[in-house]
Design goal:
80 residues; mainly alpha
Length: 80
Amino acid sequence: MKNDVTNRELSMILKTCGYFQADFARFIDRSPAFVHKLCLNYDYPVPYRWVEQARIMVGAENFEAALEQAREYIESRRKT
C-alpha cells in the first residue's frame, strides 16, 4: 500500500527534518535501541502508531514533504 511508511522512509524523514533517532526515542518514551530497529534500512512497513508519533513530532506539513522527498530519493536509487 502506497500510504505505508517503511523503515527506510522513517529514517530519512527524521534526518530530513533535523532530528536524530535519539530525539524520536525520547519523544515516544522508548529506548534508542527500539527506534534503531524501527529505522533499520529495510522496506518493511512501520506500525501506524509510530508513524503518527513521527508526524506529530515533526509536524504534518514537514512530515509529508519529507516523505515525498524520501520516496523520490529511494525510487531514483532503485533505477540506477
